[in-house]
From TrEMBL:
Pfam families: OCD_Mu_crystall (PF02423). One of its GO terms (molecular function) is oxidoreductase activity. This is Ornithine cyclodeaminase. Signal peptide: none annotated. It comes from Woeseia oceani. One of its GO terms (biological process) is carboxylic acid metabolic process. One of its GO terms (cellular component) is cytoplasm.
Length: 315
């Protein structure tokens, strides 16, 4: 059985190949059952959570991401989220590979946003605003730069030192990188706005958007979280990664549907429809497009398959 640590996963999943692999996966017939959540009691601490995310291609590959969230780990100087990915032969159930789940998740999440951008942002988009400075930020920037001719990247975060650290990590890229202190003028300037934060109050306001922009919302994964306000949701042409996930877990969509700012029929399509050509892409150069992702086990399976293919190719 192959073993991929974080570094091996990174080397095996270059963004250009991963974006293409996700495009192929969304066009393919892959079974993705609902993920299972289990509460795990921890003595004298907050409950932990066990998440199981399976997916399979009939007669081919079968995989499952096993993730844990243990909030009490913060006090022990341990990561609160851990994840591993187990890839199996879909015809025999034999293990094929085990992969670092954290690196796999970061890369496939960024690649899904870039895949959406390939269909939804303007082909001449040259300025990106990255809102958020967590582990996903550099991945999102590099993935977006893979599909669009970025010349300038702005980074905004609540902590300017964290924004500077992200900027420093991108010092050798082809685009210029600057840290901005005021989010609203930067929103106005950017052709693509990518958000990966844990915000519960909107950071992106519809009143601050202009025609021709593309908004990429990655951060919220519960109905209580929210990165964009109702005005942004009703102004933009809205797309999602999957209806099954976004309608239940994406705070911006759940809130906008509750308030009446967004109707289910207003969502133009998902990544299945975009990649298969069964929904509209960007409707005009002046349209404002918005993509909301919460992640799918299909993306994990496609990434794990690609990592193994790459490993076999290099050996």
């Amino acid at each position: 059985m192959l073993t991929f640590n974080a570094q091996a996963v990174a080397q095996s999943l270059p963004y250009d190949l991963l974006i293409d692999a996700l495009e192929d996966a969304f066009r393919s017939d892959i079974d993705v059952p609902d993920r299972a959540h289990h509460q795990i009691k921890v003595p004298d601490e907050a409950d932990g959570t066990l998440l199981l995310m399976p997916a399979w291609r009939t007669g081919n590959a079968l995989g499952i991401k096993i993730a844990t969230v243990f909030p009490g780990n913060m006090k022990k100087s341990l990561p609160s989220v851990n994840a591993s990915y187990l890839l199996l032969d879909g015809t025999t159930g034999q293990p094929v590979a085990i992969l670092d789940g954290a690196e796999l998740t970061l890369r496939r999440t960024a690649a899904a946003s870039a895949l959406a951008s390939r269909y939804l942002s303007r082909a001449d988009a040259s300025t990106l605003l990255m809102v958020g400075t967590g582990k996903l930020a550099p991945h999102l920037i590099r993935a977006h730069a893979t599909v669009r001719p970025l010349e300038r990247v702005m980074i905004w975060g609540r902590r300017p030192d964290a924004a500077r650290a992200v900027a420093d990590s991108l010092a050798n890229e082809r685009y210029s990188v600057t840290v901005v202190e005021d989010i609203q003028p930067a929103v106005k300037e950017a052709d693509i706005i990518s958000c990966a934060t844990l915000a519960s109050e909107p950071l992106i306001e519809g009143s601050g958007l202009r025609g021709g922009q593309h908004v990429d919302l990655v951060g919220s994964f519960t109905p209580e979280m929210c990165e964009a306000d109702d005005a942004a949701m009703s102004l933009a042409d809205v797309y999602v990664d999957t209806y099954a996930g976004a309608l239940v877990e994406a705070g911006e969509i759940v809130k906008a549907m509750k308030s009446g700012a967004l109707d289910r029929a207003d969502i133009v399509g998902d990544l299945f429809a975009l990649t298969r050509g069964t929904c509209d892409q960007r409707r005009s150069p002046d349209a404002t497009t918005l993509f909301k992702s919460v992640g799918s086990a299909l993306e994990d399976l496609a990434a794990a398959e690609l990592a193994v293919r790459q490993s076999n190719h290099h050996n």
